[in-house]
Structures are given as C-alpha cells and as structure tokens.
Amino acid sequence: MLLLEIKESIKIAFESMKSAKLRSGLASLGVVIGISFVIIMGWILAGLDKAVEDTFNIIGKDMLYVDKWDWAGGKNWKEVQARKNITYEQALRFKELIRSAEVVVPNARYWGGTVKYAGETYSGISIEGVTYEYAKTPMGNIERGRFFSEFEDRNGENVCVIGSIPAARIFPDSNGIGKTIKINGRNFLIVGQITKQGTMMLDFVDNVIYFPMKSFFSTFGYTNRSFTICVKAGSISAMDEVRAETEGVMRTVRNIPPGKENDFSINESQAFEKSFVTIRAAVWGIGIGMTFLSFLVGMIGIMNIMFVSVTERTKEIGIRKAVGAKKRSILYQFLVEAAVLCMIGAITSFVFCSVLVYLVATYLPQWNDSFNFLSPVIPLNLLIIATIVSIIVGVLAGLIPAMRAANLDPIEALRYE
C-alpha cells in the first residue's frame, strides 16, 4: 500500500512540475549549485589526496633526508639559517657509522645552473652531485638509458643523468641519450633520463641534472655548501629504527653534547602531512560553507514553491480528503514532490559536473602536466553522497508545506477559490 502511495505521489509530482516548468527549474537551481559544490569539492580533495600520495612516493615513504634546513618549516628561520653547514666529510663519516640503513647517499646542489647545447642556452636548472647509489632511491628511477656506474662515479667521469623538464626543453623533438651538453664550460655526456615524477606540489624535482660527485666538485667547487644526506631505510617498518640511529649518529658526527638541541633536521614524507591537513581543511571549510549557503537558498526556494503549490491545489486536496484520502497520503504527495525536485537538480548537477570534470582533467594537463593527478571521472561514492544529500534536502524543504497540506480541513479546502 505504501509503495502504491509513493508511486502515485511521484506521478502527481511530475505532472505538477510539467505544468510549471520554469518555476520548478528555478526551484531546483539552488540544489544544482549545492550538489555541484559537493561533487567538485570531493573531486578536488580526491585529486589532492592522489597528488599528496604521489608526492610521498617521490620523497619516498622509507626515505629520510638529513639537512641543515627544515623542509616543512615551523622552526625559527634565523636559528635554522645560523646552523653550520653539513660538510662532505660529515656526510661520509655518517655513511661509515650508520648500520641500519639500506642506502646512504650524500647530495650536493647548485641552484640555477645553465646548460648550453647546439648554440642555445637554457638556464634555471638545478645541478646535483650524487653517488651511483642514488639510482636505488625513488628519485633515481630511470626512464631511458642508465644511471652512471660506480666506475664513472669513482673516477669523476663527465657523464650526467637528466631530468624530464630539461630533457623536454633541450631536446623537444628527440632523445637526449648519447648527446653532449656543456655546463659551466665543461662537456657532459648524457647517459640516462630520469622518469617524470613531479606533481603539483613538487614539480621542481624534474628540473634537475645529476652529476657524479667528483665531477660536481670539479665543476662547481667543493667548499661553502651544505650537503643533504639521503638515507633509505629499506622498508616502512624499519623507519623508526633508522630514524633513531640517524639522529644518534648525526649528533655524534656533529659533536652535539647531551641535552643540546639538534643543529640539523631529519626530513621525511610525514613532515608534509601537517601542511596537507591544513590545505585539506581549508578546502573543506570553503566547500562546506558555500555548499551550506547554496543548499539553504535551494531549500528556501523549494519551500516557497511548495507553499505556492499547496495554495494552488487547496481545492484538489479538499476533494481528495472528501473521497477518503488520509493525511499520510497528502503528506507523502508533497514530500515526494519536493524530493523529486531535488533529485532533478542532482541529476542536472551530475551531468554538468561530469562534463566539466572530464574537460578540466583532459585539457588542463596538456597545458601543465603537473595536473596529471586529476581524474576525468567523478568517483562513484561522490554521486551516492550527492544523491542522498539531495533527497534529505528535498524532504526537509518540503516537510512544513506537506504538513500544512495534510492538516487542511477538507470543508474549508473545498470552499477555497
């Protein structure tokens, strides 16, 4: 019996909306905007989650980076700046002493390097000096060619491995493997190209060229620089042990007395989680606020439309009650009509957002490939959530008008003109 009443209420709802298309469309507009905010906000957050996951994979979930600088910030900048540089000797001593780590690689960096090739000059490229073992870290994954060998590393051969950004800039129409580029007056043979890894949050990691450490020293000098020590634990389960030993060994290497604060930072992917949580909370806050306002406007609009509908159909309600219709049937009729109005708004949002998401996710990465994390498809859970929310909004918006219609006196309703 209940299903028959709901079925009949849906039929009456569509007939009512059909007779007042413009009014019904305007009533659904607020819901369309609100549901669109829910879907787009959820889609953006899903994309951000993927971007962060990709970022953590680049940094390496089992990687620690001992550095003078604190990557995630939060510490007094002047105090961090005043720290002594981590020297190459300290990096080598650390590598000699640590036992729990799988791989330890010193890293030297020269920002803003210039590359010359075929009469053209390319600036703003990061040049890094590493050992051959860097190939075992997440940032050393090779797409083409190979990483330089242990022999080339120990002998300081003029070879290099190039990142995807300088590769695309210098060799837009060809493969750079086997080509010779000039950096700081010296020729370097490209033996490999690193797999593209950058995301929206870490796009600079692809703008790099790697040298053997000795080649780096002979090209850019040895002194007046602070080194980063890349420490690969080997597994996430070993991170606590490696982190504890890394801190202890580094304090020994730096001659830090007991009770004194560390004059170095141990950076890892977890260091960025707080920053991401803040970004995520900001997106949620803005999205929920705008969604609430949109739904509020939509609910008021639908409520007004339903009051008008009750007023216009007062006599019809009186006739239905006179022939035996129960309060429940009248209540269902108007609740279902309000819910159907919201469902139509939700369906419209699905179509609009699906087209928008597909276009953005398809064409935006062509303009900037850092946006590759965006999905061209809306997750199914978002559609389910949006559908449930739209029904709830419809029921809440139609509740008061429906109760008013259900409580009408049939005699007074029949007299209504």
Which structural class matches the secondary elements?
alpha+beta
Percent of residues in helices: 55-70%
Assembly level: single chain
User: How many DSSP H or I helices?
Assistant: 13
Summed up, the domain count is 2
The SSE string, one letter per element, is: HHEHHEEEHEHEEEHEHEHHHHH
Morphology = elongated
Which key terms come to mind for this protein?
417 residues; alpha+beta; 2 domains; six-stranded mixed β-barrel; 10 strands; 55% helix; elongated
Describe this structure in words.
The protein starts with a helix and ends with a helix. Strand 2 (103-117) and strand 3 form a beta hairpin. It has two domains: 2-56 and 274-415, no CATH class; 112-207, no CATH class. Helix 2 packs across helix 11 (327-367) and helix 4 (88-97) packs across helix 8. It contains 13 helices and ten strands. The chain is elongated and about 100 Å long. It has helices spanning 2-19, 21-59, 77-81, 88-97, 150-154, 164-170, 213-220, 239-253, 273-312, 314-322, 327-367, 380-406, 410-415; strands at 63-67, 103-117, 120-130, 142-145, 159-162, 180-183, 186-194, 208-212, 228-232, 265-267. The chain has 417 residues and is of the alpha+beta class. The chain has a six-stranded mixed β-barrel with strand order 2-3-8-5-7-6.
